[in-house]
Amino acid sequence: MKKTTRIEVYNKFNGHCAYCGKAIKYVDMQVDHLTPKSSEHLYRSETSAAYSDLKGASVDALENLMPSCRRCNHYKRSYSLEDFRQLILTLHKRVESQYINKVAI
Fold it and tell me: What is the pTM of this model?
């Protein structure tokens, strides 16, 4: 990725993670694909809801690139934005149940 593109992505949210809002340094920023690159073939169908989000553009288009902190990029992986939101909503419950199980054993 060109340095100018990285700078544009960083500036989209004024140096903050697009997902959690945490301030991030430019050197620590990870660039995330809002519409996952790994499922690009799924978004090429004009009947796909995500197709209208991309408006036929490449998944590497600036509109699809988001500044992300390391933690959010790790958890988002190749989830869609809506799936990622659902994952975050239930994350604390899964962590609590795993922690209790580990302590009990």
Answer: 0.72
